[in-house]
Amino acid sequence: MKLQILDGEIVIDESSIAESAAEIRAQVREYERGDRRRFDLDVIVPDGLTGDVMAAMMAIPYGETRTYGDLAADLGTSPVAVGQACGRNPVPIVVPCHRVVGSDGALTGYSAADGVATKRRLLELEARASGGPVQTRLPTT
């Protein structure tokens, strides 16, 4: 399913979520308005490293970030492997891969349309809604 959010488009594999497309859309709209900080959706997490990385991403609090290296250290793998697993995340936003940043806080790839620009907008939304600073360096380019 394609979802328009914050002037961008994100594709979510609805077969990876137990709830209906209507419920997914409703919760994403609540998130976009700043009314939802956590999704109440049953995500089907795959086995293996991708599933482990997805579980670690779901544990990152709203409005905060972690580095690929942070997750790699927690999971006993490499930052590159974590980045590859993030890229395989079938449910961006619901499993917040936008909260994973480079070791220097720089924004790196994001699978949604407009890539890093969408990632930046999501992090800025969370910072505004949580009343805190953006937890990463946001490049202007």
TrEMBL record:
Q: Respond yes or no to whether keyword Transferase is given for this record.
A: yes
InterPro entries attached here? Answer: MethylDNA_cys_MeTrfase_AS, MethylDNA_cys_MeTrfase_DNA-bd, MethylDNA_cys_MeTrfase_DNAb, WH-like_DNA-bd_sf
List the SUPFAM superfamilies.
Methylated DNA-protein cysteine methyltransferase, C-terminal domain
Q: Which GO molecular function entries does the Swiss-Prot or TrEMBL record give? A: methylated-DNA-[protein]-cysteine S-methyltransferase activity
Asked if the record carries the keyword DNA damage, the reply is yes
Q: Start and end of every Methylated-DNA-[protein]-cysteine S-methyltransferase DNA binding domain?
A: 52-127
Q: Which reaction does it catalyse?
A: a 4-O-methyl-thymidine in DNA + L-cysteinyl-[protein] = a thymidine in DNA + S-methyl-L-cysteinyl-[protein]; a 6-O-methyl-2'-deoxyguanosine in DNA + L-cysteinyl-[protein] = S-methyl-L-cysteinyl-[protein] + a 2'-deoxyguanosine in DNA
Recite the UniProt keywords alphabetically: DNA damage, DNA repair, Methyltransferase, Transferase
- The EC number on file is 2.1.1.63
Query: Under which main EC class is this enzyme filed?
Result: transferase
Q: Which GO terms describe its biological process?
A: DNA repair; methylation
* Pfam families assigned to the protein according to its UniProt record, in alphabetical order: DNA_binding_1
The organism's superkingdom is given as: Archaea
- State the family it belongs to: Belongs to the MGMT family.
Identification of the protein by name: methylated-DNA--[protein]-cysteine S-methyltransferase
Tell me which species this is from. Natrialba taiwanensis DSM 12281
